[in-house]
Write a structure and sequence with these properties.
mainly alpha; about 120 residues; about 85% helix; elongated
Length: about 120
């Protein structure tokens, strides 16, 4: 499933870029909290980029029932990255708090992704 490999690559790229911004280019004088939000967002994005890579590699030869679990896992990981890491990036870079309510939804999507990934594993 090439889509998951591309998603892994794009998220790895964005994660590295955001890590560089966190280390070298935060606007203004970032306080410890803003830096912590960036570090958390980068860490979760990078770990889940690797999880997307695993999904893509495993989906290539998975049979239909197990492929469904992998598609659900990949979707959970990708939605989690966008909502969890994305909302933390927005918060850290702009101090805009209007979307902080989606952060836990993104965390829940990550959990769903891992449950589905485990479901795939049980089917093996």
């Amino acid at each position: 499933m090439a889509v998951w490999l591309v998603a892994a690559a794009v998220n790895g790229l964005i994660g590295v870029a955001m890590g560089a911004i966190a280390a070298h280019g935060m606007p203004g004088d970032p306080d410890a909290q803003r830096q912590a939000w960036m570090n958390t967002a980068v860490a979760y994005q990078m770990w889940h980029a690797l999880a997307l890579l695993a999904v893509g590699l495993l989906a290539a030869d998975a049979e239909a029932p197990r492929r469904a679990a992998l598609i659900l896992a990949g979707t959970g990981f990708l939605v989690g990255i966008v909502l969890f890491s994305g909302s933390l990036y927005l918060l850290a870079l702009t101090d805009f708090r209007g979307l902080v309510w989606i952060t836990p939804i993104g965390g829940s999507a990550f959990l769903l992704g891992w449950v589905a990934f485990g479901w795939h594993g049980l089917g093996r």
